[in-house]
């Protein structure tokens, strides 16, 4: 199996929304880890795409995760890949690193959709969340069974860096300390 390459990766940040996050078990940790991925992606020139499920009902992306200049897909479908604007907004890179909520609904269905579309998907288990731990764990098992690789934020970061000689190594490692 190969490592995650920043030149072929996109970071997909799914539905970290203001009215949803208070209900997510250990939501602060998931949010903090997603922020680490977003910062690392910006540092290493990995494009980032955000989604928001029913933003009128669930609010916009939480302030802790500034979208900056990244594209945001507003959707009503649970599987983001079924949203009308999604195919034109996600970069055509083959690898997708996923963070998001809820693991057993929008994250799961989007991951399955991306796999069906032929993408290689890496789910950062410490940057996803659900209201209940058992829902998250069931989603992780199902995504893995269907071909997603389950990783951690640190795994992604160090694989994107590739070497301790990377010019941004110290700056990137500071994100996880």
Automatic annotation (TrEMBL):
Residues 10-154 form the Isochorismatase-like domain. Transmembrane segments: none annotated. It comes from the Bacteria. Pfam families: Isochorismatase. This is Isochorismatase. It comes from Microvirga aerophila.
């Amino acid at each position: 199996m190969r490592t995650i390459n920043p030149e072929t990766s996109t970071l997909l940040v799914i539905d970290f929304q203001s009215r949803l996050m208070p209900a997510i078990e250990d939501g602060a940790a998931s949010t903090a880890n997603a922020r680490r991925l977003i910062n690392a992606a910006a540092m290493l020139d990995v494009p980032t795409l955000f989604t928001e499920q029913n933003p009128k009902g669930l609010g916009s992306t939480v302030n802790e995760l500034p979208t900056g200049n990244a594209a945001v897909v507003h959707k009503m479908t649970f599987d983001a890949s079924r949203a009308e604007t999604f195919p034109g907004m996600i970069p055509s890179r083959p690898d997708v690193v996923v963070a998001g909520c809820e693991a057993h609904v929008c994250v799961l269905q989007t991951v399955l959709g991306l796999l069906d579309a032929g993408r290689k998907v890496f789910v950062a288990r410490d940057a996803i969340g659900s209201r209940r731990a058992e829902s998250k764990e069931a989603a992780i098992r199902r995504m893995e069974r269907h071909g997603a690789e389950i990783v951690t934020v640190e795994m992604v970061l160090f694989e994107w860096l590739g070497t301790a000689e990377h010019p941004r190594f110290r700056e990137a490692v500071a994100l996880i300390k």
